[in-house]
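Hi R.,

As promised, here are both runs. First protein below:
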Amino acid sequence: MLGRTLTSTAWGMVADRIGRKPVIVLGIFSVILFSALFGLSVHYWMAISTRFLLGSLNGIIGPIRAYAIEVCRPEHHAIALSLVSTAWAIGLIVGPTIGGYLAQPTEKYPKLFPVDSLFGRFPYFLPCLCISVFSFLVLISCIWLPVCAINPQCSHCLYILLQMCEQNIHHIKIFLQSTLI
């Protein structure tokens, strides 16, 4: 959390400059890499540093909220933001629960995981591996995310800007009609 606290504003500025999708993809890739390394930690300093790096390179909550606003019509903005917050809250509840069930598998499930296996040497690698596999599937699904940032090359953003201009012209017409009558 310390790494995320220190870098989330910077990741928001990077997302404004290069686009939301690259920042989201980099954040998900950092989850894949540093969660696996966290599970393979053999020293306390290694565990702390991998978690710090995971947080530092994963400032995606702001860009995801901005992305949700950019890809949704204005009447759906509230639902989009509440879905992002709800997904975050569900992850905070379900993630540690599943991680607790999968931690130390050689003690809990000795028939499936022998003591001399990789999971015996690294008792917290199984939940971290599951996180990495799930994040890899999410990373693959990012292929279908439309590229969207407020820049002239993005056709979806041009569409949004044109809609905003049309709405402003409509409001100006209404204002002029009401003042002239």
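And here is the second one, sequence first, then its structure tokens:
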Amino acid sequence: MSSPNALLCWTVTAYRKDGMTEEAYHKYLSEVHGPLVRGLLAKHGFQSYSLVHTNTTTRAKMDQIFDPQFANVADYDCIIQATFRSVDDFVSRLIQNTFVSLLLITRTLPIPSVPGELDE
């Protein structure tokens, strides 16, 4: 039985676009995607939001902390987690009210395909 105060956690994993540098992806996540999504989630009552950009250097350091039990380290470029109170809240507050707007917004955002393109 779940507690009435229990939170649900939504986890998204992603890879950067082919040909995009880690630096350009980090800049896109931290300056464009993160602020946009963080605001939408806060507006619709999400309890927390975290975005982690894992680059080649940080993934290589995982060798230092895992043993055979944890040998399957994912190579995702980004891991996003958000917590919310109920599936109904997620569907009615975020998806139905925002999803179409978010799609329209993100289709117009510059997603760089070459290093430095976001700077232009």
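A quick note on the second one: The chain has one domain: 8-113. Let me know what you think.

Best,
J.
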